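Shipment paperwork, digital attachment
Item: protein structure file
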Amino acid sequence: MNAHSTVTSPVLTGTTLKGLTLANRLSVAPMTRISATIAGVPTERMARYYQRFAKGGFSLLTTEGIYPDKAYAQTYKDQPGLADREQAEGWKRIVDAVHAAGGRIFAQLMHGGALAQGNPFRSDTIAPSALRPRGQQMVSYYGAGLYAVPREMDEADVAEAILGFAQSATLAIEVAGFDGIEIHGANGYLLDQFFTDYTNRRQDRWGGDIGKRLGLSLAVLNAVRSAVGDAVPVGIRLSQGKVNDNKHKWTEGEEGAAIVFKALAASPADFVHLTEFEAWQPAFSAGGRSLVTLARQHAPDLFVIANGGLHDMARAEQVLQAGADMIALGRGALANPDWPRIAAGKREARPLELEMLSPISDIKDGELQL
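Attachment content:
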């Protein structure tokens, strides 16, 4: 924290999203913590982990990526699901704990596609095209070696994936009681595989230019909106970098970004959650605009959540000024689950201790207390 932090900072003022009142503009970014049971049911440890962020003053939490079906969606060993009632009731205990502490919580629904490295339901993987993903499996999530070559999805596979998102969203709202839904369209997972030029070589309606490659994400947004109704906040997370290719940039640059954000503005999405390594930086070239600024320009009515290196108050304020409505903290929140209270009191934040995330990125005992 620095001297720029004050109790009157816009970061600490309230806002609303689709009628949902939020006490400040600070949220917890989704972070994969693989601490569910083998059956994908959330645990008491997870409930305490999430509740501490609400106790610490964060007004909104977004869960780690949750797999929505028992086909090809699960990505990591011990990842939680929202594919059956038992899993949904496990999440209800977490939602209730967060609400009891004064917070709101969105379910992030995620399909791993070609990056699946720990799916007990299938021995193979699927993707838009039969191309081996770049990089290697993530060791901190029990992975080893190269990714498998996925099978190219046919129309039945696509329909099954869309249906999984919709059914999972219904469980999230009707059984678990979540306050909203975030579709994971970022970081190299299935929807991002369809969106990315080099992972999507399809010649059908799901491939082509950047607008067409966004098509599956839009189809999922439409299906989820139909499933949960008009009153529930629904949005999507987008990125350029991926867990297996963190330097990637959208090859269409600012022109492509304009197409994407205009399409989202015309979609049922209420918000877009943008994650970059440093959210304030030009998205494509020196002197250019950030993704946040481009989103605000081309989708003026969308609620914009920004994530990426914003645990410094001055940077957070800069990104709000650039057009974001809310700031999402990842590493900063892990080290400081009470970051909003630290900011309000103008105290110094704690540094992130990397051993929290090693050798496996599960929830550690030390993370369960404020």
